[in-house]
Amino acid sequence: MPWSVGAGLEGKGVMVTGAAGGIGREVAKAFATTGARVMVVDREQKAADSVLPDLDGRGHVAVAADLTNLSAHDGLIRRARDELGSLYALAHLAAVLRRRKSVDEVTEEDWDFQIDTNLKAAFFICRAAARAMVEQGGGGRIITFTSQGWWTGGFGGSVVYAASKGGITSMTRGLARTYGPHQVTVNAVSPGQARTPMLMDGLDPAVLESMTKATPLGRIAEPEEIAGTVVFLASDHARFITGATINISGGFLMY
Ligand SMILES: NC(=O)c1ccc[n+]([C@@H]2O[C@H](COP(=O)([O-])OP(=O)(O)OC[C@H]3O[C@@H](n4cnc5c(N)ncnc54)[C@H](O)[C@@H]3O)[C@@H](O)[C@H]2O)c1
């Protein structure tokens, strides 16, 4: 087979959820530079639309969807197939973090909000995408987003978020086994601390400093430093990687 360093994504359809967020926007931008056609999905139309001017190339589309509304998923996938030509890859980033000061402050509503968004919606949108990829033939790529919390379990008020991300790691492995025979790969990326609204909003500066100190690279990540790995996992170069959790934490954890 002739060797190419390109991603092999020219003209392919890619859906990015949470694409108006800190990392999602960079992921959408990175995909657009490969020549892929990107469907930008986020909760608000205005936010989704704001990503389009940042994208190279053409054929991109911005769609508002609340992914906790599971009944919208099939329509979303259909739109991606119709408007992008096909759906080759899904990068599913949409998630929420509700940081509480202590585990005792966590409410049932906090649990439902984070698990419904981060885990339940993830399962159903990934399954809907995988079904489309199987039906299309030709394989596909699903990239999920976990967090270092999948490994550490979080602490105190962030245990629920960590549990949702632990679920993502397990689910990713299970979907990888399920859809492997169809050449649909399913992998998770696990960012360490990245400079986005999710991390920075309400973060105690002392906690940020201690996390930075515990990171061998001595800093937190910029969102674009996560995006390249997502493109790699969607690219031809990663075609034999599935069920993996790729740790992008500057050495904060090593696995
Ligand atoms: N920033 C970090 O340090 C960090 C660390 C580890 C993991 N992550 C993970 O990376 C991913 C991206 O995080 P980020 O830091 O860019 O966060 P962010 O808050 O900047 O972006 C998340 C995006 O998801 C969207 N979203 C949330 N709920 C949604 C819903 N129900 N339907 C549709 N869209 C919804 C939000 O509107 C937002 O634009 C998340 O899965 C997050 O858990 C982030």
Please characterize this protein's 3D structure.
The structure is a single chain. This protein has 255 residues and is α/β, with parallel strands linked by helices. It has a single domain, classed as Rossmann fold (3-Layer(aba) Sandwich), CATH 3.40.50.720. It is 42% helix and 15% strand. It has a 7-stranded parallel β-sheet with strand order 3-2-1-4-5-6-7, sandwiched between helices. The longest helix has 29 residues, at 108-136. The radius of gyration is 17 Å and the shape is globular. The mean pLDDT is 96. The structure holds nicotinamide-adenine-dinucleotide (NAD). Nicotinamide-adenine-dinucleotide is lined by residues 17-18, 20-24, 42-43, 65-68, 93-96, 117, 145, 147, 191, 193-194, 196-199.
| Global mean pLDDT | 96
- The structural class is alpha/beta
Quaternary status of these chains?
single chain
Bound molecules: nicotinamide-adenine-dinucleotide
Globally, the shape reads: globular
N-to-C span = 32 Å
CATH homologous superfamily classification:
NAD(P)-binding Rossmann-like Domain
CATH topology assignment: Rossmann fold
Q: What is the count of β-strands? A: 7
Tell me which CATH architecture applies here. 3-Layer(aba) Sandwich
CATH top level? Alpha Beta
What gyration radius follows from the Cα positions, in whole Å?
17 Å
Number of helices: 9
Q: What are the segments in which pLDDT stays under 50 over at least 5 consecutive residues?
A: none
Query: What is the H/E string?
Result: EHEHEHEHEHHEHHHE
Count of structural domains: 1
Helix content: 40-55%
- Report the major sheet: 7 strands, parallel
Strand order in the sheet with the most strands: 3-2-1-4-5-6-7
- Please report which band the strand proportion falls in: under 5%, 5-15%, 15-25%, 25-35%, 35-45% or over 45%: 5-15%
